[in-house]
Design brief:
This protein is mostly helical. Among the domains are: 98 residues; 116 residues. The protein is 61% helix and 0% strand. It has 38 helices and no strands. Helix 10 packs parallel to helix 12, helix 17 packs parallel to helix 19 and helix 18 runs antiparallel to helix 19. The longest helix has 19 residues. The radius of gyration is 44 Å and the shape is elongated.
């Protein structure tokens, strides 16, 4: 007995009769050490295979020395036992344990593989038989030492590739062991066909033949060092996200960086989720935090991400926005990431700054429970997990946009980008609810929505459709900045008029400042630039189409300067009381003499007495007379028409007209109106009553 057997079997008493019986009926009822320390007289290949079946699937563990002693004594039947076990392993009721199988394979390697001649290692039929008949169930569990030993044998490319094809990928640890201790050591050998390059017609075939499923555990640098002809752009479908990041950040001789990045992006965007686009972006960002990317690389990445947003990112949109945030933080400070295409400002974004001091734990609790609580936009934006439904988003937006919320533009932008994949549907639902917002929070949110949506639309009809279908509720709150950006869109007259119609629908929900902002920052600048393009021969139609209700806020002279063909006399129905007074009192070019104008205005008012317009116009007329130089002839016509107006109006309007008449008399030049007209209101009303 050698030293190993002496050490292993010290103190072990083996009953040969019992062991022989156990091998047949219940091999694992006896400790493996007792088998190893017995003579194993009469053991058959079937007995040893049965012992392997139960031991390799049991929870027991034995030393390598015990297994080696057992196999040495059973050497004559070992090969047959391996054949029997290999054919039966796939149908075993209990799975085999990898750590024990690895141990057994190490011993088999020592007893059998070391005896294989160099010529046999190059013999494909022999290696195929060895793996297929004897070792197939053991292969996924080969230890690093056995893998390294095998890689050093006299393998040909064909036998190496066959071994590789027979080993399935089980888990990451096994995969990395295969790559580091078998694949790379073999392919790096300075052999006649180093890297087995000549066995493949292209890069894809070379990668599949020589790395199989284990290519994911090899860096792109290693692939290129082994095969200088390897073209990773041909093998994008076989590369992992980590390898694609390596391709993006490392220059390839003779290939422009922008071509590489664009090719990788094109590949990923065919099926972004399945091909790992979010993973590539995240890994690329992590790399950039340690090794800042060049300005050019950042610019190419930013351009592609912006193009994705413009073309519709769908469920990927939050991922794209997060990547834009991330890369803007790691790009060189003096790097212009995107060309400035218009004067629209971009809201800066910095999640760290927005969330500094924001405790979102309570908001997170509400989100986890699906409850809507009264937390700020910042608290939602900074929540670790923002997994909300469309209904939740609709309710939350309605609550915050209907009040003067103090949330910053940065908070809104961070929040809206995190829910951007739900945003279109939520905005459409809100628009269909016919809600209107006229608040500072809606104004801030609308500015951000310009950046997230409208600024990325290249088709003017899409811009108009978005305003009308998704953002109508926001329009009463439009800021000067939003309106300036809107007019920079190169809208056609038809599109401009549709936009005016959208704003006009919210006219009654705006205050005076908001209405005048729409006129001064959008309508008038656009028409001034458009020139005669939007002019119409029909003055009323021109006014309705290009101004809507906002026309009341534009002075007559400005209307005429925008459209020299505009004839206010044919549009009296659409002029405001202020404009009607201006028509009578001011020097408006292109009009007939004042008597004709004044009579036309009063004829309009009397055609079907319009109580509101009469009541609104009279005090404006009185006030205007104090500051304007009105001729005596005009006064005389006005008083004459006021007298006639008294006849056609309801009784409750008589006192209004008389008071206005009396006030107007105070501004008449001396001697212009006869004393018979200077009657007090009380006298006039009294006389009319007595009559």
């Amino acid at each position: 007995m050698d030293l190993t057997a002496t050490r292993v079997c010290s103190g072990v008493n083996s009953n040969e009769t019992l062991l022989s019986a156990a091998l047949v009926s219940a091999p694992c009822s006896v400790d493996l050490q007792q088998y190893a320390c017995s003579s194993l007289t009469g053991i058959t290949a079937g007995n040893l295979a049965g012992l392997l079946k139960c031991q390799l699937s049991s929870s027991r563990s034995y030393s390598t020395e015990i297994w080696k002693l057992l196999f040495t004594k059973a050497n004559d039947v070992l090969d047959g036992a391996l054949v029997i076990f290999s054919s039966a392993a796939a149908n075993m009721s209990q799975p085999i344990r990898g750590d024990v199988v690895s141990q057994v394979l190490d011993v088999v390697g020592e007893l059998r593989l070391e005896r294989i001649s160099p010529d046999q290692w190059t013999d494909l039929s022999f290696i195929s038989m060895l793996l297929g008949q004897y070792l197939k169930p053991f292969l996924p569990f080969a230890s690093p030492s056995l893998l390294l030993c095998t890689s050093s044998k006299n393998l040909s490319c064909q036998t190496y590739q066959h071994i590789l094809s027979e080993v399935p990928l089980v888990n990451e640890t096994q995969g990395r062991d295969m790559a580091n201790f078998f694949i790379l050591p073999f392919l790096r050998r300075n052999a006649t066909d180093a890297g087995c390059v000549s066995t493949a017609n292209n890069s894809v075939e070379w990668l599949q033949k020589n790395f199989g499923p284990f290519s994911q555990f090899v860096s792109l640098t290693d692939l290129l060092s082994i095969n200088r002809l390897f073209d990773p752009l041909e093998t994008l479908s076989n590369l992992t996200p980590e390898q694609m990041v390596g391709l993006i950040v490392n220059t390839q001789p003779g290939v422009p960086q922008n071509f590489i990045i664009n090719t990788v992006f094109d590949h990923l965007l065919v099926s972004p989720v399945q091909r790992g686009f979010p993973d590539v972006l995240e890994l690329l960002y992590i790399f950039s935090t340690r090794n800042p990317l060049s300005c050019q690389t950042n610019q190419i990445i930013f351009t592609r991400l912006e193009q994705i947003l413009s073309s519709g990112a769908g469920d990927l949109e939050p991922v794209i926005w997060k990547s834009l945030y991330n890369f803007s933080g790691t790009a060189p400070a003096d790097c212009t990431l995107l060309p400035v295409v218009n004067e629209c400002p971009v809201t800066p974004f910095n999640e760290t700054r927005v969330c500094s001091g924001v405790d979102s734990s309570a908001a997170q609790q509400c989100l986890n429970e699906g409850r809507i609580c009264g937390f700020s936009i910042a608290a939602h934006a900074c929540a670790q997990v923002l997994n909300v439904s469309v209904d939740y988003l609709v309710t939350l937006l309605n609550a915050h946009l209907s009040v003067d919320d103090m949330s910053s533009a940065e908070s809104w932008k961070l929040f809206l980008t995190r829910v951007s994949n739900l945003l279109d549907v939520a905005l459409l639902q809100l628009s269909n609810q016919s809600v209107w917002w006229s608040s500072s929070s809606a104004s801030v949110a609308l500015d951000v929505l310009w950046e997230l949506r409208l600024d990325r639309l290249t088709d003017e009809s899409a811009v108009v459709l978005w305003l009308d279908e998704h953002l109508r509720a926001f329009l009463p709150s439009a800021s000067g900045t939003f309106l300036q950006c809107l007019r920079s869109q190169n809208l056609s007259c038809q599109s401009f008029q549709r936009v005016v119609g959208a704003f006009d629908a919210g006219f009654s929900h705006m205050n005076d400042v908001q209405r005048r902002t729409v006129v001064s920052h959008f309508i008038v600048p656009f028409l001034s630039r458009a020139g005669v393009a939007c002019v119409s021969n029909n003055s009323s139609q021109w006014l309705i189409s290009n101004f809507g209700q906002f026309s009341a806020l534009v002075p007559l002279n400005q209307l005429i300067s925008l459209n020299p063909q505009f004839n206010p006399m044919s549009s009296l129905l659409y002029l405001s009381p202020e404009q009607l007074v201006g028509l009578m009192f001011d020097d408006v070019p292109g009009l007939p003499e004042k008597s004709v104008v004044i009579n036309a205005v009063f004829d309009h008012l009397m055609a079907s007495p319009q109580t509101e317009r009469i009541v609104s116009m009279l005090p404006i007329m009185v006030e205007s007379s104090k500051t304007r130089n009105i001729s005596c002839a005009s006064y005389q016509i006005i008083f004459h028409r006021l007298d006639h107006l008294m006849v056609s109006v309801p009784v409750d309007l008589e006192s209004v007209i008389l008071r206005s008449r009396s006030a107007l008399l105070q501004n008449v030049p001396q001697g212009c109106v006869s004393s018979s007209r200077q009657v007090s209101v009380e006298d006039a009303l009294g006389n009319k009553t007595n009559a």
